Amino acid sequence: MSSIKINKLEIENVKRVKAVKIEPSASGLTIVGGNNNQGKTSVLDAIAWALGGNKHRPSEPHREGSAVPPHLHIVMSNGLVVERHGKNSDLKVLDPEGNKGGQQLLNSFVEELAIDLPKFMESTGKEKAQTLLQIIGVGDQLAKIEYEEQQIYNQRHAIGQIADQKDKFAKEQDYYPDAPKELVSVSELIQQQQQVLARNGENQQKRLQLTQIEDRFRQEEVNIDLLNKQINDMQIKLAEAKTAHEKTRSDLVVAEQSATSLQDESTAELEKNIAEIDEINRKVRTNLDKDKAEEDAAQYREQYDMLSGQIEELRKQKIELLNKADLPLPGLSVTEGELIYNGQRWDNMSGSDQLKVSTAIVRKLKPQCGFILLDKLEQMDMPTLNEFGQWLEQEGLQAIATRVSTGEECSIIIEDGYVAGETPQHNNTTWEEGKF
């Protein structure tokens, strides 16, 4: 089914309009120009009311000072004739065969946003994106992927913070390269000390034995002297004494040799370690904490990198999903919940691009609707206006717009409720049904 457009519209006594007849171009821009307060916007309001229903009825539709009630007559490209007239401005819709219809028939091809485009353009960036995603049928899938991406992103963020904290903690910790790798046990040091003291005690016993033997040897020499004086009387005792003395000499040699090789072990290092055990263990614990923090940080970094890979994969899925979608405009996409057109977010788009995007989305919402209404295009400069008009023609779309201007770009100019240059013929007259 081809899109439906407005072939002709006739308006009388609506707001500031007295009597206006317009035959818009089938495609491209039809600009209703004029100065302020002449009735330009009243033309668009009348069309919206005629096609969109009473929810678009102006609060004061009856032109001030007119005895004739509002009358609207619109002929659509599919042959439908839409009228509102009479005291209550009742709606009348006739098809080419003369069959009657109503608002429901109009709603089947008139897109709400086409007659109220500011509603879309003034919505938030996320609302615009959601509108687009829903009409191309990927909103739910994309929402699921984005939810999963956000969950993983939050998890990765938390892990990254922990890894940073671990790194920071490790860097702030002192390190003692001369400290042992494990905590020192006091009981083991005391046991080692006791073993050394026991060995030193044995050495002391041997030294004492040497002293005793030396004393005995000296005493025996004294005895020998005495015995020598009595040698004649004590030959037997002398021989026995010599024998004993030789035995003692032999013991002395053995004792001297044994004592000479003795060397006491120092307990100073052990005593120092015992005295400094708390400080040593403090350094060991510090080193262990630093090592553990570095190890933890490395593990969290691995988790962070793994989650980054998952996020990247989900983003690829989003891109693939959007690339496969039937988007209404080349270069249009959604990134991080925002509309993007040719790489630009909404607030960075030109006025022409914003209108292109809005119009394309409206057309996608209801392809049968081939027209849009645009108010206040005076904000566009001429190059931008021409560019937008050319795009509309290229796309086969019809736009009826207003602009505060009396320049050549205007299709018609409204002056005091009439089309400038036309002789008013129906001021304060009564409409004939179906005629201007």
TrEMBL record:
Q: Which organism is it from?
A: Enterococcus larvae
**Which InterPro entries does the record cross-reference, listed alphabetically?**
P-loop_NTPase (IPR027417), Rad50/SbcC_AAA (IPR038729)
Tell me which Gene3D superfamilies the record gives: P-loop containing nucleotide triphosphate hydrolases
- Glycoprotein found in the keyword field: no
A Pfam family: AAA_23
Report whether tRNA processing shows up as a keyword of the record.
no
Protein name according to UniProt: AAA family ATPase
Q: Where is the Rad50/SbcC-type AAA domain?
A: 8-281
- Sorted UniProt keywords: Coiled coil
Coiled-coil regions in this chain?
210-251, 283-324
